[in-house]
Design goal:
Its cofactor is pyridoxal 5'-phosphate. This protein is α/β, with parallel strands linked by helices. It contains 11 helices and 10 strands. Helix 1 runs parallel beside helix 10. It binds 4'-deoxy-4'-aminopyridoxal-5'-phosphate.
Length: about 325
């Protein structure tokens, strides 16, 4: 037992847990990286810390400065907690379709919240473009730009991948996760491949995202839709460039929900839908690689963030889940 010197040092070094149900069902060992154990309760704390420290090192973020970002919520929470710990202000632009818990958490952290209607990336009203404009118009402000700022994936090359490698004692056959910015998939993929070229890296793409077709057939093409927050990408972000993807799965929300429910009922783990989609992807990868393999995935955030959505039966019924 030891004492952590400050809040920022709580980011990363998350536990890795063996998931009993998915392992028993496949005859493999399937492990989940507990990113909900970060202080902001999601995988995005890591990217937030690296993006802020990179901006400081470049001299782009100066004392009294403001951090501006467009986010589905978790990156905003990570940025707000890092900003509070370091004495910066945050302005967070978020689509109004995201969970109320994320908005309330951002407000509690003191972030200035700008809600915009959900709009396609091609629209100037999209949350990413809105956040860039606000950053340009605000004095002493930096735009975090998580999608195309590769400080994001560096957090996973030097952090998440190295932790998984050490926790699994170098015995790992496969890794999979879904993509929001691509920081996690590309960063963990690059980090694990640098350790062992033979680790199979798999994309788990929700419906409505364009990456499954891109990695399978070289064409960005989206079909259907998903209610999962924080994932589902339609373009090759700078973070995704050069991501070592060996195989890919398209995962329906229903399969993701199946695993969220089972992990809650059978193992007492309360997760969000992107974690369920990742676990469904890990099960698909286990079936592809065969019994006896060791596979890791990401448990992206806590399900307590979705009590008014995914974990509410009325919400699920309205969404057909
Ligand atoms: N799951 C959730 C709940 C998220 O908020 C995010 C980040 N948007 C992801 C998964 C995907 O992570 P990344 O941005 O590293 O692709």
């Amino acid at each position: 037992m030891h004492i952590i010197p400050d809040t920022l040092a709580l980011i990363g070094n998350t536990p890795l847990v063996r998931l009993k149900g998915p392992s028993e069902e496949t005859g493999c060992d399937i492990f989940g990286k507990c990113e909900f154990a970060n202080p902001g309760a999601s995988v995005k704390d890591r990217a937030a810390l690296f993006i802020v420290e990179d901006a400081e090192a470049r001299g782009a973020l100066r004392p009294g400065g403001t951090i501006v970002e467009g986010t589905a919520g978790n990156t905003g929470i990570g940025l707000a907690l890092v900003a509070n710990a370091k004495g910066y202000r945050t302005i967070i632009v978020m689509p109004e379709t995201q969970s109320r818990e994320k908005m309330d958490t951002l407000r509690a952290l003191g972030a200035e919240l700008v809600l915009v209607p959900a709009a396609p990336y091609s629209s100037p009203c999209h949350f990413v473009h809105t956040s860039r404009r606000i950053a340009e118009e605000t004095e002493n402000a930096v735009w975090a730009n998580q999608f195309d700022n590769i400080a994001n994936r560096r957090a996973h090359i030097v952090g998440t991948a190295e932790e998984i490698w050490a926790q699994m004692e170098g015995r790992i056959d496969g890794f999979t996760c879904a993509v929001g910015t691509g920081g996690t998939l590309a960063g963990v993929g690059l980090g694990l491949k640098a350790r062992d070229e033979g680790v199979c890296i798999a994309l788990s793409d929700p419906h409505g995202a364009a990456l499954y077709d891109y990695y399978a057939h070289g064409e960005l093409k989206a079909e259907g839709s998903s209610v999962a927050e924080g994932i589902g990408q339609g373009r090759i972000t700078a973070n995704l460039e050069g991501a070592p993807v060996d195989t890919q799965f398209r995962i329906a929300d229903g399969e993701g929900w199946h695993w969220v429910r089972r992990l809650l009922d059978e193992e007492g783990l309360c997760l969000g839908l992107s974690s369920g989609i990742n676990v469904a992807g890990a099960v698909a990868l286990a079936r592809q690689l065969g019994p006896g393999k060791r596979i890791a995935t990401i448990l992206c955030d806590t399900g307590f963030r979705y009590l008014s959505t995914l974990h509410d039966p009325a919400w699920r019924a309205a969404k057909g889940l």
